[in-house]
Amino acid sequence: DSGVPLIKAGALTTCTHLPYAPFQSKDDSGKVVGFDVALIDLVAAKLNVTQEIVDTPFEGIKSGADLNSGKCDVAAAGMTITDERKQVLDFSEPYFDATQALAVVTGKKVATLDELVGKRLGVQGGTTGEEYINAQVKEKGLKIEVVSYRDLAALQQALVTNQVEAAVNDLPVWNEYIKANPGKVEVATGFDTGEQYGFAVKKGNAKLLAEVNAAIAAARTDGTYDKLYAEWIGE
Ligand code: GLN
C-alpha cells in the first residue's frame, strides 16, 4: 500500500479525451492504448492497481472540473502545460515536447497563414492550437475563418473532405495520422510553440503527483521511457 488515496478501490482512474493517437486511442479490439496510457500504466503498477480510463470532453479535463469532482484521479490527454491551466491543475514534470503544425491535403501549397486569408482553417476546440491560431489571426489582422471542431477525429475528417483548407493541431498527431493514412495529408508548415505535455492531478494531491513524477523519472532512467517512445512515437 503506497498510502495514496484513490477515488475507486483497486483502480487508478484516468481522464482522457479520445481519440488522440499516438497518445491515446482505441485499438482494433476497442482497448484504449497509446504513449500516455503506457506511462500511466507504470504509475498504476507502482500503486498495485489497474488503470481505468474515462473518455470525457477536453474542456472538463483542462478546467480541473473532472479531477475536482472525483471523476478521475489523474488526467492524461496529451495536455500542454500552460500558466492558465496551472491555476486549476497540478502538473507533473513534463513528459513530452510538442509544437503546432498546419496540415493540408497532399499537394495543396500553403506555406504561411497569410495564404489562408478568405479560407477556412480548422482547429480543435479548447486546445493550445486553437488559442495559438486565434492569437495569430488577431495579431496579424488576418481574415481567416477559424472553424473549431470538438475532437481530433472531426478535425481530420473535415480536412480530408475539404470542409477546411488546412487544419492545425499538435505535430505528433499529424505524424501519426500520416503514418496510418499514407499519402492523404501532409504537414505544410510548423509553428514553434515550444509546448510540453504534463499529466495532471487535482490541485493539492501531492501524494499522487509524487508517484506520477517518480514513475516518469524511473522510466527515463531505466530505459522504459525510450522504449515506449520508440514504440508509440517513432524516431
Ligand atoms: N496539446 C494540446 C493542448 O493541450 C492538445 C491536447 C488534446 O487535444 N488532447 O491543448
TrEMBL record:
> SUPFAM superfamilies given for it?
Periplasmic binding protein-like II
Enumerate the UniProt keywords alphabetically.
Signal
Which Pfam families does its entry note?
A: SBP_bac_3 (PF00497)
Instruction: Name the domain of life.
Output: Bacteria
Domain Ionotropic glutamate receptor C-terminal residues, every copy: 11-235
What this protein is called in its record is Putative ABC transporter substrate-binding protein
Residue span(s) of domain Solute-binding protein family 3/N-terminal: 11-235
GO terms for molecular function, please? ligand-gated monoatomic ion channel activity
Task: Offer a single GO CC term for the protein.
Answer: membrane
Question: Which residue spans traverse the membrane?
Answer: none
